[in-house]
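Troubleshooting: if your tokenizer reports a length mismatch, compare your output against this known-good record of 73 residues.
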Amino acid sequence: MPTYPIKNLKTGETKELSMSMKEYSDWRDDPANSDWDKDWSQKTQQWVEYGDTFFSGTKYPDGHNRNQNPDWY
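Known-good structure output:
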């Protein structure tokens, strides 16, 4: 679940929210939270995982040995 560092624009208070993007969007649209905004000074960690088929649609030059296992197809 994504984590959103937020900051109160009036008081300077900071905190982190952990919720889905839809929940965060709804939270931002709530008028009660109008004083809060994303804290752009904080960096969040980004995780990317690549599976075995990540480059399966990429055309490699002839003779390239990626995915040459006949059992894979």
